[in-house]
Amino acid sequence: MPALVSKSLRDYRRSLIRWTIGIGAFFTLYLSIYPNISQNKDIYGKQALEKYPGALRDLLGGLQDFTSGAGYLSSVVYQLFGPMLFVVCAMLLGNRAIAQPEEAGTLELTVTLPIDRRRLVFERFVALALGLLAVAAATFLLVWVLSIVSDMDVPADRILAAHTGVFLLGLFFGVLALAVGAATGRKGTAMAVVGVVAVGGYIVETMGRNVDWISWLRWLSPFHYYLDGKPLYQGFPVGDYLVLAGATVVLLITAVLAFDRRDVGV
Amino acid sequence: MTAVVETEGLTKFYGKRRGLEDLDLEIRPGEVFGYLGPNGAGKTTTIRLLLDVIRPTRGRMSVLGMDPRDPAVRGRIGYLPGELALEGREKASEYLGFLGRARGGVPGERITALAERLEADLSVPMGKLSKGNKQKVGLIQAFMHEPEFLILDEPTSGLDPLVQQEFLAMVREVRSSGRTVLMSSHVLAEVEHVSDRVGIVRSGRLVAVEDIAALREKAVRRVELHFDAPVPREAFEDLPGVRDLRVEGAGVRCTIDGRPDALIKAAARFTVVHLVSAEPDLEEIFLTYYSESEEEGRHARAGVQEPA
């Protein structure tokens, strides 16, 4: 493994462990109350959910089905909070690639190593992707085991499909933070951009289903390529995931080119 | 032999602010070059340009015969940043190990030997290191791969006097092994004992490059002579190189520029009982350069403002 990748992973280790524990705790909490919900279909059933105002239901992903295993997972865990936790985790890791060390001043010595600037960005990306993959893999195993324990009756490949989507979505936002940091050197700017794109993207994708004048914006939203394919019901939305991965590659190339041509630490 | 550093019209503007303008600099193989100037004069800008941390607005440069954009050249350089940032829980020894691997491998014994020499404790997390200890880690990483060219930005800041002496000894060893050093400072006294030449930079411009030996010759020296009887003032007046003459009874005080020869010959006609000559104050010459260049600048500006 290149020195910079292993060094970055070593730097990320503590926060990767903390995020795995945090996201794992979130999944455990929500999955452990599922048996309670599946046994009280009259409280959490269709009619109960229809009492919510339409716009709120849209924001929460429609709330069509709460009591089946797949329905519960997709509307509670994989709809909003699961992806958002990954997005925040990836954003913070993405910032540690360039912007944070640049603001702290530690990047100066790194760029004077005999490592090509383009390679430096790429190796930091590899560390980000591997770190995020480790968090995703550990939490996938946890969800899979918990789904069996809680009798959710959701096939493992569907959970894997949803979890892969969460990973790809997180990676996209992580590379977005990395790219803004590589271009500007400011982690505050990177966080603002990620925040606007993530919240805006989520609102556009969910509200856009029923609001005509913003529905055309949905194809711009990164969440569209994760939520629209309903991976927990329909398995891997291969085309959508390829779009997410492709957008990530485009951002990475942008990051590499932007960092290669600018002054560091001024 | 080709120059270690060669720049031509090297210029860097940060937006409209001038960092460095039209720098023509040559650093020769095997020399220790002292790069002097007050804070903000352009020393760090020059160094960052040489290491491709920042890119020139215009001008040309080559380092070790290569374009600084080529990453391979950086493997042959040891660099101590002026504001060295080390942070986190990582131990200094782990960080040095990483830097060594990234530079193609450095034997662990060499790191240990340098750490012992500078009395640095590498088992402490870097975030907890004091300023002086961070500087030691910075020096270790700059020297450890035995680079052909060392670029040290304010290397002695934060070091206690004993470690400073050890550091200067390390610089002398580098020179005697035929390698080259560029070290910056805002205090001449820090570099004059190891430098062969000094360049003086001010407000983004190189105002002088001098041999230290030549600088010594030009140095202002305060001299005090005491005689066994009062001496006539006329005997010392109008001697070449003698300024600020004060004759008080049997004592003569003055400053001399350059050689003390004329003064000694004049004094030899009387009986000298006591002679005090202070160490040449290079700092003073250094400041003379500054005030001269400042005046030139003022004249130049005044000339521009005159109506045509």
From TrEMBL, chain A:
It holds the Pfam family ABC2_membrane_2. The keyword Membrane applies. Signal peptide: none annotated. It comes from the Bacteria. GO terms for molecular function: ABC-type transporter activity. Keywords: Membrane, Transmembrane, Transmembrane helix. The chain crosses the membrane at residues 16-34, 125-147, 159-181, 188-204, 241-259. The keyword Transit peptide does not apply. GO terms for cellular component: plasma membrane. This is ABC transporter permease.
